[in-house]
Every structure is written in structure tokens, then in C-alpha cells.
Amino acid sequence: MLSLALAGKPNAGKSTFYKAATMADVAVANYPFTTIDANRGVTYARTRCPCLDRDERCGNCEDGKRYVPVELVDVAGLVPGAHEGRGLGNQFLDQLTDADAILNVVDASGGTNEEGEPVEVGTYDPIDEVDFIEREMDQWIAGIVERNWESVERKSRSPEFDIDDALSELLTGVGATEYEVAATLRDLEYPDDPIQWTTTETEALAREIRKRTKPIVLVANKADVAPPENLDRMRETGKLTVAATADGELALRKGAEAGVVDYDPGDDDFAIAGDLSAAQRQGLEKIREVVEGHGGTGVQQSINTAVYDLLDHVTVYPVQNESKWTDGTGDTLPDAFLLPRGSTPRDLAYAVHSDIGEGYLHAVDAKSNRRIGEDYELVEGDVIKIVSTAR
Fold first, then answer.
1. Strand pairing category for 65-74 and 3-7
2. How many other CB atoms are there within 10 angstroms of residue 164's CB atom?
3. The overall pTM is greater than 0.85
4. Which one, of 366, 355, 358, 308, lies nearest residue 45 by Cα?
5. In the prediction, which pLDDT does 30 show?
6. Residues 6+ away with beta carbon under 8 Å from 350
7. CB 304 within 8 A of CB 266
8. Of 12, 194, 264, 368, which residue is least crowded by CB atoms under 10 Å?
9. Pairing status of strand 39-48 against strand 3-7
10. Can you list the residues of the chain whose pLDDT is less than 50?
11. pLDDT on residue 93
């Protein structure tokens, strides 16, 4: 399962975002370090269900809105100097190791200072937070490399020593794969002898491995109270940016649970479906302004942006019956898998189960009912039958 991590300074709204995205019961408060241990839960990427191309809905979507599970990790707030241990920073940074992408939640309202302490809205410049997580992660990785560099130098005394192998062994400890390390090293120039390395090389290595392994979506949170110019300036940074109101999303989801609001996560509008007080209606209309202005509350959009744009994944649906799009029990489109773009039917087979991958024979495109080649690249919404000796 893909893993997304929420990071940012204290009191930026990460725990509210997490609660809204997972509907898990977590502490939310207007003071720094509400979260100490990382919260881990399941949220969902939203996409179009293939059953919309058929006469009946599959029963595993919300009227054609398919929600695919993704892990969401809420990491405690990070303060400047986190990589040096401030605010238990190294502990919190370690919790980002297994994340495939980072959602950098920034208080776009300028209502909290760099330490996460409340200040008057608009008095703190959120632009200062845009690169903050990147800087701390770069220094954190560089620190890990430097602390372990002596062991690399010792290994270099062996005739069989290979600098790339040594770096691969070291960097897989911060969540990088061997492929990602190799791809990073191809883009860098560095000495073969580790004794000749300087801080310049280690920091460049840390920066490039972070870019490749921990891509970031900038979540401009508290858009409902943020000065419009703050949102404009955050977009102008060139970062992949989504305006969001985690408070608004949480209110809509709670309203939907209570049956007083007609809303599905990611909708660009909602309807009031029950009796509410004047104050409640006024609050919802304030949320509607953000939803209409930004195409949603931004919570679902942030998740989708990370999964489908930043990580460039596609949703694929394995079935056993290519005509009915069902599994062995007759359930229509029961499973949805997120795979990197460029994946093949064999990759899907392994994702379903290693035995099915090992026994892979061929695949059928259920939409066209045609056999497809092993080099076929899966696309969003594919419905695929895997033929394997394991079945």
C-alpha cells in the first residue's frame, strides 16, 4: 500500500487533516505538539470507477466514485533545527522514512509562528514554511550519511570495495531503494575514494536522494481564513500546491455521517440535507465559499495529487471473469490496485500475489476482451484478467 506522510510545523492543521482524511479519533488542539507519536491510518485516493462504462454500478464504489486505500501517517510537528534534535526532531524525521511522498501542511493564514505558536492571522509569512521541510529533511539525511561515513571509509580498504554499493547499503536505511540510489548516483559527480568526500558532496547526495525518494505536495491549509495574497504567493513558488481547509473537510464528513449533509470526499459541492441551526448553516456556507473557489476542500485533492500526479500511479482492477468483471465469488470489480505508470500485467500479477506472478502466463484486457502482450503498459481504469498456473 502506498504511504503518504503529513509533515510541517506544529499547529499547522496536520492532525485535523489526518482526522478528516481518515475519520480516526485523534487529538486536535490549538497548541504545539498535540501529536507526539505518529498516527497511522487509512485514507483513500479517489478515481473514476470503470463500472460507469456498464449498465449497472459495481457495488464497490459510491455511484461511480472509487476510493482506493492509501496509508496516511501524521508525524508530530517539526520546528527549525529538527535535524539537530530540537523538539525530538530526529525521532519525528525517522517516522518519514517509509513514506512514498510527503504532504507539507502549511498554515497559509499566517496565524502561527515558526514554532507553531498562535499569532494574529496574517502576521506571520507562510512563505517561510514552503522550503522548511525540504531543508530539514536534507540536513537529516546528510547527518545520517556523515555519522556513518567512517564505516564507509573502513570498507574502502577492501580490494572488493565499490563506492556505489557502499552508498546503496547506507541510503536504503532512509527509505531509498537500490534503483533510486543508482539513479541518483548517475546524476551526481563524486570521488571514488570516500576519504576525498567533503560536506559539499554529502549534502548534494542527501538533497538529490530526498528529491527522488520523498517528493512533496505543498498543502496550503486554512484557506478559509488565509489572506488571498498568501495563497497566490504560495502557488507562485512553483511548488505543487493545493489550497485546503482541513476544518471544512472534517465538518462536511461529520455532517455526512450525521445525515445532514449530502457529500462524498472530493466533491466540488455539497447539499444540506437536514435541519440545522442558523449558526450551523452559516458555517457550512462559509465552507461552500472555499469549496466553490478551489474546487473542493483540498483534502481529497491533496491525496489525489500525491498519488496520481506526484507519484504517477494508475488504478488497475484485476478480475477472474473478463466478461462479467467479477472475481470467483461473483463480486464485480472487488479489488483496485495502485501501480506505478509503466507497470505491466506481470507487475499486476505480482501485486495480487507472488504465486500468481510466478505462475503468470498471459493477460486479457476485459474491456476489449482481447489478449494483451507482456510488455503492455497498464493505464488508469484498466480491467485485467490474469491467467496464471497459480489459479
1. parallel
2. 14
3. yes
4. 308
5. 45
6. 356, 357, 360
7. yes
8. 368
9. unpaired
10. 26-36, 82-83, 85-90
11. 63
